[in-house]
Each structure stands twice: as structure tokens, then as C-alpha cells.
Amino acid sequence: MTDWHGSLRKMTTELADPVRYTVLPDEGGPCLNDLLGKTLSVTFTGAIHCVACDRLTKKSFNQGYCFPCFRKLAACDSCIMSPEKCHLAEGTCREPEWAETHCQVPHIVYLSNTSSVKVGITRETQLPTRWIDQGATQAKPIARVQTRYQSGLLEVLCAKEVGDRTAWQTMLKGNGEPQDLEKIRQHLMATCANGVADLKLQHGESAFELLEDAPETQIDYPVLSWPEKVKAHNFDKQAHVEGTLMGVKGQYLMLDTGVLNIRKFGGYEVEIKVGT
What we know:
The protein is 22% helix and 27% strand. It contains 8 helices and 13 strands. The chain has helices at 67-72, 78-81, 96-102, 129-133, 148-158, 168-172, 181-191, 193-203; strands spanning 2-7, 12-14, 20-22, 39-48, 107-113, 117-123, 138-145, 208-210, 217-218, 240-249, 252-255, 258-261, 268-274. The strands form 3 sheets. The chain has a 6-stranded antiparallel β-sheet with strand order 1-13-4-10-11-12, with no helix packed on it. It is globular. The termini are close together.
């Protein structure tokens, strides 16, 4: 049996066929693809280290932050989840310098097929990682936008026609039916044409570059079998999780005993053991 010890972070991924996942990469952790079908034991030691400042904290906020960091860091502000509420221009951003490198940079508005077709946004440099983290099986950029705030405005407009949420339990039960993302993009752009024109009028023609010929990305995940029912493990209720690793999708380990959201428990110190 092989052991690894460290504080959880989002699994690193590599777009391959299928996606390759590594857990505890900073501690030399394993590629999970090589562990499919083996017994995996993950034990929470009781210690939580803030993912930003590394201090010990009794409770995790926003997937791994201590309370002081949760209150002061721009990465934890409400506008991260709702970018159309960006308040940098009002002079009230928590960290203007952080915003310059994370928000005032080109973003991509995209369509993806997770549990169903949804619209989303991410920094241009975060593709295809963002799609993998969401468990998308198909994804297609539809616009390149100058800032996060502006991409949020376009996302809100498009979300009136298609969803902007992933039903994670449905996503983990299997791959959804393939969708014609190009056909959906064409319909969406036609339906939202007046709204897009208004956004360009307000923010400038160059702020929104509609992408008509962006390639679609197909994503396959390392899964031996899909669960019929999705039961989530929770380190706050049960410190020890064990089962046969049946697959990995999004940021979830899929064990035969239930699924474990690695990202949700960022900062949680764990010991990982692999049996036969």
C-alpha cells in the first residue's frame, strides 16, 4: 500500500483521451487514472490549512479559506460568482491589483454540455481547465470579451435562453446526450442580437468579439462505471472515506461507496492510501 499526505487542492488535469488527473500534485501525489479499480482510502486528519495564507483554521469558507482571507480577498468576493456585479470602477474592489491580472483581462464566453447545455465564462488562459473542472463533455467558445465584468453581462444575456448551472448529480451519473453546440450558438446569437448590439453600444464595438468559427472541444473522462445513485462523502461528518475508485469527472472522485468533491474540501489535510 502506497501513502501520500498533504492538504487538498484542486486536482490538476491534462486534456488527453481520457483526461488525466493528479491529486496532491505538490506532494508528488498519484495520477488517478492509474488507480482505477483499486481501493482508495482518504482520511481527514482534522487539520484545515487556509489555501491562501496556510494558517490553521477550524472552519473552511468558500472551498478552503480561513475567515479573515474569506472577508478580505477579492477571490472570495460575491462578484466572482456574479461578475456582472463587479465594482472595480466604483473604487470598492477588495484588491485592485489582483483585479488587474484576473478580471481586467480577456475572458471567453462559452457553451458547454455538462448535465445539459449551459453558458459560462472564464479567463482565456483557463481553457480547457475550466471545462474539465465542470465535467463538460463538449465545449465551444462563442465570444471573446475584454473584461470579466463585460463577459458577465453577456453571460446574463445568454442565460435567458440557455441555463448557466450544472446539475452535479446528473453530471456524475453519466455523459449527457451529444448536443449540436454550433446550432445552439447560431440560435442564441440570433435571439440575443439586439442585446449584444446594446452591449457594444455601451462598452464599445471591440469589447465583444463574437466567435463564429471557434473549434469545439470533446472531453472524455476516466470512468469504469457510472453510479446509479449519487451519494456524497463529507469530511465534516465522516473523517474516513474508502472505496474502489470507479472514475474521476469534474473535480469528483467516484468511489463505489460515494463521490468525493475534492475542490469543496480544499485545505483539508488528508492521508491517502492505495490498496489492491
